[in-house]
Design goal:
4 copies of one chain form a homotetramer.
Chain A lengths: L1 E6 L4 H10 L5 E7 L8 H4 L16 H5 L3 E4 L6 H10 L3 E4 L9 H8 L6 H6 L1 E2 L2 H9 L3 E3 L3 H15 L8 E8 L13 H4 L4 E2 L7 H13 L6 E8 L5 E7 L8 H9 L5 E3 L17 E6 L7 E7 L3 H15 L16
Parallel strand pairs in A: 1-2, 1-3, 3-4, 4-6, 5-6, 7-9, 11-12
Antiparallel strand pairs in A: 7-10, 8-9, 10-13, 12-13
Chain lengths: ~350, ~350, ~350, ~350
């Protein structure tokens, strides 16, 4: 049993963390902070938790957080980096669901997030928490950077081919589609139902913050720095789910790509390579921590097409955070993450 | 005033034709046939037409159709080709909204549609009805093949760069997304709301019938036959709209692509090139015959990204059919097509 | 041709007014004001208007408005009443789409809208603009109060039985359902797609501002003041549409209710009584100014059940405003309002 | 550990049963039959079950079912009544999710379901499985009739006031709204997304099969047979959820209705009475077995308004079936039913 705190739990990743942690057999949730909702029972803001969780939001309180074994930070970008040092010094481990520790290079962080990094020395120690890529380092992480939603779906789809060096690195394309919960719970005209439902659009084509994160992953997987990556995110009129459609051009003979993916992921508890010819649907992972992947090599095409789906709030955020927690504390990796997707 | 008949008007392209033709000042709708709904007032099946259209469905009746100046065929693939000869011989002009006359090569048609072509000699005469590509030929068409929905959005997005020979033909990618009305009004488990809403998926990646139609267009635009085209369609949980995300790799200096598109389409009544940096939303064309296009050249990418949106039932089907009718009969091209998109 | 101005045209009733007025043959739109969007072309905020309307938003400017024959006020509640006097004195006629002039009794207004009425003397003159109830007065209205969306659907459903005195006034029930565009275009957590889609709820059961407006109508229709009215609004996860399910208990023999409704509305251009046994769908009026009504008298029930549907933004707001304008200025009542609903 | 079989598990109640039973600690799922899908792995039809359930559909096989302790029948209406006798004689207990054993009077059954009842003698023994009404009888049920979805939401909302005799029985109104999964997984034009999304309608106003079931419950709760019940179901454009809006007219002083409901349900594991003034949202019970209820007594109204929400596939079908199983076999009533609703 570990003592767990959550900082900033009023957004969608916050409520999703609570849904997963409330029944987790090894977790005692001791504190959840929110400046705006301090004093309010969590189940009042999120009635789905009525009867499952008695805790109330409290004012941010470092002393209370220092009593925890683990703190999840579900705050906006730029907050965790200002408080991490103090918690780490108190021996608390941190899982940051925001972007503060995802990019190893502080110059890249500053360029894309528009502010200097407040805690560069922890950037070096921070571990990027994509278990399928670097489970070993996660075990001992003091500060864990939980990956972004798009980067999770994309990197899991790219990894097997990229680490084998079988595709051209100068022409990678990730055409990605996300449900509206990815935009968060903030009041915002663009994701009002009357605006975003019954429509489809791309956004951020000139530049999106997940681009440098994916690019960093491509560099790590391939060992090469000369990468040409085109990333186009789109907004889908549904609540949950990400679908990445990945285009990679082989540099030569690639062999049996289906078998390559199946072998790579055969022991992974949360990556499911579908039979050849499949088309994964985002609803098959709604509410679950799975990533489902299918591989296609269309005739008369020079591309390998990989389809990768996740629930952006689970494997793309809070579920992966719990998976990382399980790894960090030596719990069974699937503990508390055995939900079957809700379908229909 | 011309006499117009519709064959098979019970599907979504049928009701959309009726919405557009009912108030058209040059059209007298004299007959609409449907085997299954014969005798039923059209406005009974489609209550939105109550008060706008008094006509009832009748049994298929060639004699009545021969009295028309123009017949729209909104039947399933493979039907129009069996009846076109007789109508043409009677001097009736035909606009086929299905695929029967879209592919010039009967062998390709047979391969993709699974049956031999029943009327090859009309294939030669038939005109492919994408006005922005071949308005001149449309004017005198006896048999007009109305383009498919995906091919319309894709070809309008590709045309300016392809006809100038500025991009690599061996590596064209069309990542396309369509609302569920594209699947038609037939009873079908896959597009039940409980199945398709709140989910996103690709389909037909190994092969889709719009691929050869797009490929044929690429060959015509470029004048080259060695084409590598990857086409991945996806199902979006919304009713109307297509969004094509097109990836093209320049072969050299391309100059000002924005200006190229603006110049190409400046006199087109239904193609609207958005200001640089835009992201067109499908809802901005819902119910209208417009195609809206935006061009992007992301940094650190080797691709030109073109975004193209249409309403699949209007510019992607019935609206384009009416546009073609206007051209064929010398009416003002926008006549009856000035609807402003419904937003929100 | 009349000169028309719009005050506060950035919300959904604003863009809907523009969609209807842009092609209206008798309207010259000369000014549209918005403090927040001054200087921005209207078609930039609402891209569906690109190519249809060249005008830009301007700063509020009473001098310019005074040049108009008619001003539509599409501002929040409480604004029109502060500026109406000056415009009226300049001879401008006003159609207010907000609630400022809907309630004849200033005390009731103050109770429900939380502020004293700023222009009580105009309240007396103001005409409530439900044409099916009081077309004659509308013709000469200087200040016209355009009805609320729920009150329109409900009153049209109640009118024939109430004006005949056939049902109990102490036990009227209006169970109403509205799409999310009724909540407006303001940034608001509750109508984010991730919140309101895929859910259904009642709201405002203890009291809603449309209750006194409906009650006032019931009193007028029935000539009785002792009214017991239960009004329960619900939020439907769709963009447009209102469905009112009305329960009325007959006080005695009611005769042929279907015939009563058909007779009442047979000459109304925008009320369509469906055949007995029908269930109107909101989509059959999407984008159109129609109200569709069906009457049921279920077995083993003591109630007459009336179903009434409108598009909340058209007959429930901007379409009805244009209908009122047509009546006020002697134009054909359907002018500019012949749109066929978009279906599917 | 009990051996459990499922007959006809390809519909939505079937997959939902599987989602709940797969991880249930006391259940061994030994057989699931489907004529149409025999031989196909369950997880192939429902990919959300991949990795959670290895079983395949088999041909209907009474011998195999007789080996079970319990059989869930998830077949269409009229099937279970033809096979129940044989299973009961073999000592197998049955939970029927269809309507075959819900109505005690075979004449009423025949009237509403259009066929004579094939097993009248079991009707007498069959227990109606609404635990909050008759938990004691459920314990020993051999044949259990699992309630309909609407009847569950409505009866739980009516029960406390009706069993106290505080409201008029001749004027009960249940205005109910259901998501589209209630229409089942059969191919059907009316619930295609392109038809049912973005629209709202009533249906079955002249008569719906859940009316006699609710009426039977009202008679049982009240002990009175003279009941006037108006039931109007509506179709909501969402996948899961039922919202019942109930109108009851007090016959005299009713006292503290909020306290009455809280007292009635305080020990119920799956009924949650919300604080006074609340508006329950269906999404707060999505995927969970809870029923959430709120009570209102609006001013100037002669009605008590009760709002009751459930997930139609869980508390309205498969979850309630599992709850009944738990009661019948002496398991902890919440076993396998502790899912937290998925929100957003």
């Amino acid at each position: 049993m570990i003592k767990v705190g959550i900082v900033g739990g009023t957004g969608y990743t916050g409520v999703e963390l609570l849904r997963l942690l409330a029944p987790h057999p090894k977790v005692e949730l001791t504190v959840i902070t929110s400046r705006s909702e301090a004093g309010r029972p969590v189940a009042d803001l999120y009635p789905n938790l009525r009867g499952h969780l008695e805790i109330a939001f409290t004012e941010p309180d470092t002393a209370a957080l220092k009593q925890c074994d683990l703190v999840f930070s579900a705050t906006p970008n730029g907050v965790a980096m200002t408080t991490a040092r103090e918690l780490v010094d108190a021996g608390v481990r941190i899982i940051d669901l925001a972007a503060d520790f995802r990019l190893a290079d502080p110059a890249v962080w500053e360029k894309w997030y528009g502010m200097p990094h407040a805690c560069e020395e922890l950037l070096t120690e921070a571990v990027y928490g994509l278990p399928e890529m670097n489970r070993a380092e996660i075990k001992s992480a003091q500060v864990l950077a939980n990956p972004g939603c798009y980067p999770t779906a994309v990197q899991l789809g790219l990894l097997p081919l990229l680490e084998k060096g079988l595709v051209a690195l100068d022409s990678l394309i990730a055409d990605c589609k996300s449900g509206v919960s990815g935009a968060g719970r903030g009041a915002n005209v663009g994701t009002l139902q009357a605006e975003s439902a019954e429509s489809f659009k791309a956004y951020g084509v000139p530049g999106h913050r997940h681009w440098p994160e994916i690019r960093q992953g491509v560099v790590r997987m391939s060992g090469q720095d000369a990468v040409g990556l085109t990333f186009v995110p789109h907004l889908v009129p549904m609540i949950r789910g990400i679908h990445a459609t990945l285009y990679m051009r082989p540099t030569g003979e690639v062999g049996d790509v289906q078998a390559l993916y199946e072998a790579k992921y055969k022991d992974e508890p949360f990556v499911d390579v579908l039979p050849a010819g499949s088309h994964p649907e985002t609803r098959t992972v709604r509410g679950s921590n799975s990533c489902r992947i299918a591989i296609h090599q269309p005739e008369d095409s020079d591309q390998i097409v990989v389809l990768s789906v996740i629930d952006n709030l689970v494997k793309g955020a809070s579920g992966q955070a719990v998976q990382n927690m399980n790894i960090m504390f030596g719990f069974e990796e699937k503990m508390g993450l055995d939900q079957i997707a809700l379908m229909p």
